[in-house]
Design a protein that fits this description.
The chain is mainly alpha-helical and 259 residues long. It has 8 helices and no strands.
Length: 259
């Protein structure tokens, strides 16, 4: 399925609709991303380095868990990314089904490739943290199990995308999986409230101060920002490169047909 050309996008009414259609055009999106990626990557790296330095020099040990508690500065941001990226993937899939813009599925595909890594690392760091605190690497806890389901949802999306690439049926199946899979997100979020679990409750709550001193939550805020911007940079960089690759391929095909 080919991407829309620059001339195919008319100017719709309303600011939101206008920008939605404007950046739904691959050429315009690529031109917009070129300068953004330079600053986004630098800011992400600076935030992550600052957060990790603060975590291992400024943040105190937990009085019960000791140094192993500092895995929170990796585990919690990775858990946040895993869920937020799947939500973004679901939105892209919905946009594709409604507007049939293949750029939305390109974004969804790139988000899945980053999201599965964050979900895998979330499970891995959780296992490292669980061993000394719970006495086991893994339990079939509601929170852990629902995050494992999220990992397999990412895996299923990637499998469908790779095996039914560039077919209308394959893209539709991917989009449906992306949308239906979003039902797992509220289960992940509310699992510690709906069931009796070993996993602790939310680290942050909207409208409430963090239940920890500033020496602990400030490094976490920086690693949150660094991981979030870094993950976004990876998705947008992959999208930028894919658009360039497809446009170059199209240009070469047009040139060879003229010759």
């Amino acid at each position: 399925m080919s991407m829309p050309s620059s001339s195919s996008v008319s100017r719709p009414q309303g600011k939101f609709a206008y920008y939605f259609h404007y950046f739904g055009n691959p050429t315009r999106l690529r031109k917009f991303l070129a300068p953004v990626l330079k600053y986004l990557g630098s800011f992400a790296l600076l935030s992550l380095i600052t957060g990790l330095i603060l975590a291992f020099t400024y943040a105190p040990q937990d009085w019960q868990q000791g140094e192993i508690f500092k895995l929170i500065y990796l585990h919690v941001p990775l858990a946040w990314l895993s869920c937020s990226f799947y939500f973004f993937l679901s939105v892209c899939c919905l946009i594709f089904l409604v507007f049939r813009n293949p750029l939305a599925m390109l974004l969804a595909s790139n988000t899945a490739s980053v999201g599965i890594v964050s979900a895998g690392l979330c499970l891995f760091t959780g296992a490292l943290w669980g061993r000394p605190t719970w006495g086991t690497w893994w339990v079939w806890d509601a929170r852990l199990t629902s995050v494992l389901v999220l990992f397999f949802l990412y895996l299923g999306f990637i499998f469908l995308e790779k095996n039914y690439k560039n077919t209308a049926e394959g893209m539709r199946l991917c989009a449906l999986l992306g949308i239906v899979g979003a039902l797992d997100l509220p289960i992940i979020h509310f699992s510690v409230q709906w069931w009796s679990t070993l996993h602790q409750g939310p680290t942050f709550r909207l409208g409430h101060m963090p239940p920890m001193p500033i020496q602990m939550w400030l490094p976490l805020a920086f690693t949150f920002l660094g991981f979030s911007l870094g993950g976004l940079w990876l998705i947008l960089a992959k999208t930028y490169n894919k658009i360039r690759e497809r446009q170059l391929k199209s240009l070469l095909q047009n040139t060879s047909s003229i010759d």
